[in-house]
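Incident review: delayed structure delivery

Summary: a single-chain prediction request sat in the queue longer than the usual turnaround. Root cause was a stuck worker, restarted by the on-call engineer. No data loss occurred. The affected request and its eventual output are reproduced below so the record is complete for anyone auditing the incident later.

Affected input:
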Amino acid sequence: MPNSAWLRKFQRQILAWYGGAARDLPWRADRDPYRVWISEIMLQQTQVATVRAYFERFSAAFPTVTDLAAADEAEVLRLWEGLGYYRRARQLHAAAQVIADEHRGKFPREFAAILALPGVGRYTAGAICSIAYDQPAPILEANTIRLHARLLAYREDPTKTAGQRLLWQFAEHILPTEDVSSFNQALMELGSEICTPRNPQCGVCPVATLCQAKRENAVAEIPVPKKKMQYEDRTEVAIIVRRKKEVLLRQCGADERWAGLWDFPRFQVASEAELLSGELASQLEERTGLSAAIGSRLTTIKHGVTKYRITLHCHEAEGMTGRLRKDATAPLVWAAVDKLADFALSTTGRKIAQLLAK
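Output delivered after worker restart:
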């Protein structure tokens, strides 16, 4: 670990830099732990530029944690729509209910109590404690992992157990005795804006002289690159079943990709040729109770979800007959085309809805 002289210089220089370089972000308007929490959950695996508008809409709709706790999950998901990783929204809602029920609607201050909330891990709990309450809690996320690995010239995989142990120890070691809120935000800001994954701006970095990777001319090599994701191709079909000016929607079940969101009946197929067989029509009838032939193609959407590259063929249903079956685990409803904006739809479901609206 660096010595005390290094620490004093590092803390002084990074705080001075942050004082003039901090971005004007809506969640930095105050230290409200509720707003800090929402922003940290939204920022997980999502860029700041994307989160800004979502945060403003979400916090306007649910200005307090009790407002969020009292909301319907469907409304929470509708405001989250397009942000992805919907489990975050469901856990956010569940955690708000815990705060309302077990903490009388007041956001907890203790690290252990915050860590116990659904969807909150060590980093998020530390971010809330330090940013909102100025408590000496270390943080470690994607930007600071990269920053710290370079400061230490750590050449092993920082996501492995040994690397995580070292970097958490370092994150705690460098904490100042005061203004931890600004300090931890400065670390994330530096990692996000200056110590970037590619082409880091070492020439304007406020702590470049303290960086061991810079001394060793190894900034480009640290941290070691992640293994490339091996993507799997999938072909799926969405069926648009019409009844006059209404279309059929299905709410995704708890164990499905978009749990809690609404989508058009969707099926995986082995190949596009399977569309021509009667198997897809049989699956539609089994799932919905409605018998129909698979008709003309409305559109094709290519998109990615986690490790999958999906080609989604969207087809009209023709000659629909039968009665809609009841399914408590994945409800089915007829929705007016001009009211689809009221439903929390999957990303591709929203694209199909916009096409139908035209």
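Verification: Strands lie at 232-240, 242-243, 246-251, 262-263, 266-269, 290-305, 308-322, 332-336.
Action items: add queue-age alerting; document worker restart procedure.
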